[in-house]
Amino acid sequence: MLVDPDARILEGTSSRRAKEVAIKLVTQIAAALSLLVTIAIIGTLFYRAIDFVATLANPSEADVENAGVPLSLDLLWSNGQWAPRFTRFDIKTLVVGSLIVTAIAMMVAGPLGLGAAIYLSEYASSRARRFLKPILEVLAGIPSIVIAFFALRFISPQIVQRLFDTASQNLLAAGLGVGLLTIPLVASISEDALRSVPNSLREASAGMGARKMRTTLSVVTPAAVSGLVAAGIVGVSRAIGETMVVFLVAGGGGNSAQFTANPLEKGSTMTAAMASQASGSDNIITEIAAGSLYFVGAVLFVTTFLLNILADRIVRRYREKY
Description:
Blueprint: H1 5-11, H2 14-57, H3 61-67, E1 81-83, E2 88-89, H4 91-123, H5 126-139, H6 144-163, H7 171-195, H8 199-207, H9 212-223, H10 225-241, H11 244-249, E3 257-258, H12 270-277, H13 287-318
Antiparallel strand pairs: 1-2, 1-3
Helix pairs in contact: 2-13, 4-7, 4-10, 5-7, 6-7, 7-10, 8-9, 10-13, 12-13
């Protein structure tokens, strides 16, 4: 059997092949470790969350004695208060608060982010785009604590309290602050989606006599709808997962939060509740209270995971290939 001399050259020396094998092994170990760490985190999260629910469903005498009140699954959807320190686990208090903040944030980030993306993609000159796009992406890196203080010192007193009779800490101000954080993310992803639309569609629309606005709204935007929807869902995931802004501005960062559907009142979200209860060992005095944080974390994980799946399905279904 004849061996091609070129094939031997491509195989390289024995030392080169050994280096290639070593690099392959290192990268495989890195990938495996990443997977194992992820599995360990998720496994621990759900194990403790399930244990918490099982404790409420079938509490032992020791659990009841430590809690100081009767335990049952009704605690997860009653009382209208989230206060693990006092054995109050009304999850709808946190879910509704998270939905209010997220809705307000997207009402800010959606239009402003999409408007910025349309300008950068369709109207800005090449020079302006090269200058503004990096600035927009840098805005996404502003620490959330900075936005939190800005919302607490400016948005709430200068905007919310001037328009409504409310306390300095409220869900509306928190939602506006989270919206500011989400604008760069929505704008960046939306601009990438709009820029991916072929210029041939714009030229065909212009050739039919359509003006720039008509081309943008009737041709370019529908062609990029999958990317725009994905940008919105990613923005929702970002808003739901925000912690520091709602922790400081929403007013529910203490040991307890009352149920409310009014954005002008104090409230709490899932992330803020976890941060407030885990901020010090003196805030968690029972094992069941600590378990409740894992339960909230599991609910938050499932929510964001389903949103990511939804975004992927929408992109696959409505994506246009040119």
